[in-house]
Amino acid sequence: MEHIYLILLLFCKALSAEAQFNGYNCDANFHSRFPAERDISVYCGVQTITLKINFCPVLFSGYTDTDLALNGRHGDAHCRGFINNNTFPTVVIFSISLASLESCGNSLVVSTAQGPNAYGNLSLVQIGNISGYIDTPDPPTIISYLPGLLYKFSCSYPLEYLVNNTQLASSAAAISVKDSNGTFISTLNLLLYNDSSYIQQLSIPMAGLTLKTRVFAAVKATNLDRRWNVLMDYCYTTPSGNPNDDLRYDLFFSCEKDPQTTVFENGKSQMGRFAFEVFRFVKHKNQKMSTVFLHCVTKLCRADDCAMLMPICGSRRKRDISEGTESNTASGNAVLSAGPIITRIANLKAPVFQINTVTSALISGVIILGVMSVCFFIFSLTLLKGKSTPVSTLSGVRNPAFS
C-alpha cells in the first residue's frame, strides 16, 4: 500500500511539473527552482547587447515572458523580450541597440583615468559602462507570495581595450547579476591611400615605391555608433609585421612627430588621417627592397570628451628605437596594423651591358668591312705609285756603226 501511495505521489508531481512547463523545453529535475546567477547570459556586441534569460525558473516562480521588462518599463512593448523555444532550455531574449540604449532606461557612464598605454607612455583612457536590469512587476497588493525577480547586467567597453572578464554573482536566490566586457576592435581599420582625397587605396608597384613617396593613412571606424570618435594615440613603423618588434621608428605620439609626418585629423570624427614619406630601414641595405609595416595604437572617445583627451605637449619621454617594450597582449591595448609598404632601394653597381646575337653580328660585319676598306685603300695607293715611276737612262760606249 505504501509503495502504491509513493508511486501515486511521484506521478502527481510529474503531472504538476509537466503542467508547469507545458509547451516549453524545460526539465522538472533541473528547473523546478527560483532563478540564479547562471540563468542570465550577456553578450556585449559592437552594435547590440544581447541578453538571454533561462525561462524555466521564471515559469516555476509563477511568471510569464510578458512579465519581464527592461528597467521596470513593463508598459512599453519595445522593452520586453521574446521567447525562443528552439533551444534547451527555453530562453527569453532581449536585444539592446547601442544607438538607442537610453530608450528603455539603460545607463551609459563614461569614466576617464590616466595610466600607461601599451608602450609605457602616460595616456588618458576612457571606459564606457552600460548597465541596466530586467525585473518583474510588483503586485498592486500589500503583500505577495510570488518572489520578485531581478536580473542585473552591465557591459564594459574599455575604449583602449583593457579587457578584463569578470563575473559577479549575487547570493540572493531571485537576483542575478552578470557583468561582461565588449570591444569595438572589429569596427576599426587602418587603410593606406594614394593621395589626400582618401578615395583610392594605395597601389604598390612590383618594384616598390621610390623613397620619399608620400603615403596617406587613415584609421576608420565602420558600423559604430556615432557617439564615438577615433583618437590615434601613437603611430609607428617596424621592418616586420610584428607590432612588438624591438626595432621601430615613431611617426607621432603626443606632440612629438617625425618631421616628414603630417596629422590632418584626429579625435574629431570617426576617421583619423595623417601622411608620411616613405623611407627604408638601414638593416635592409643588402636587399633590393625594404619593407615597412605601419601600426597605430587607437582609442575611442566620446565626441564631447575628445578635446579633453588630446595630448598635452611635453608629456612623452624620449626613448631609443631599440628599446624593448611590453607585450601588447599583456597590456590589453589594441594595435591596428597595415602593410607591408615596399620601398625600392637604388642599385649603385655599375651597369652591365649585354649585347644580343644580332647586334654582335652587325658590329662584327662593320669591323670586317672597315678592315677590308683600309686594305683596299692601301693597295690602291701602291698601284698608283708604281705607274708614276720614270724609265731608267741607258749608259755605255756609243757604237760607231750607227754614226
CATH architecture of the domain at 34-139 and 146-183: Sandwich
Backbone shape = elongated
Low-confidence stretches: 5-19, 161-178, 315-333, 391-399
- List the secondary-structure elements in sequence, H or E: HHEEHEEEEEEEEEEEEEEEHHEH
Tell me roughly what share of residues is in helical segments: 10-25%
Number of strands: 18
* Total of DSSP H or I helical runs spanning 4+ residues: 6
Radius of gyration: 43 Å
Largest sheet: 5 strands, mixed
Q: What structural class do helix, strand and pairing data support?
A: alpha+beta
- The first-level CATH class name of the domain at 34-139 and 146-183: Mainly Beta
- Write down the overall mean pLDDT: 74
Intertermini distance: 195 Å
Describe this structure in words.
This protein has 403 residues and is an alpha+beta fold. Among the domains are: 144 residues, Zona pellucida, ZP-N domain (Immunoglobulin-like, Sandwich), CATH 2.60.40; 138 residues, Immunoglobulin-like. Helices cover 17% and strands 33% of the residues. The chain has 6 helices and 18 strands. The strands form 4 sheets. Strands 3, 6, 7, 8 and 9 form a 5-stranded mixed sheet that branches. Strands 14-13-12-17-18 form a 5-stranded antiparallel sheet, with no helix packed on it.
Secondary structure elements and pairings:
Layout: H1 2-20, H2 28-31, E1 40-44, E2 48-54, H3 55-60, E3 69-70, E4 82-84, E5 91-97, E6 107-116, E7 122-135, E8 150-158, E9 175-181, E10 188-193, E11 214-221, E12 228-238, E13 249-253, E14 256-257, E15 262-265, E16 271-277, E17 289-302, H4 306-309, H5 328-331, E18 335-344, H6 357-387
Parallel strand pairs: 8-9
Antiparallel strand pairs: 1-2, 2-5, 3-7, 4-5, 6-7, 7-8, 10-11, 11-16, 12-13, 12-17, 13-14, 15-16, 17-18
Keywords: Cytoplasmic vesicle, Disulfide bond, Extracellular matrix, Membrane, Secreted, Signal, Transmembrane, Transmembrane helix
Signal peptide: 1-19
Transmembrane segments: 361-384
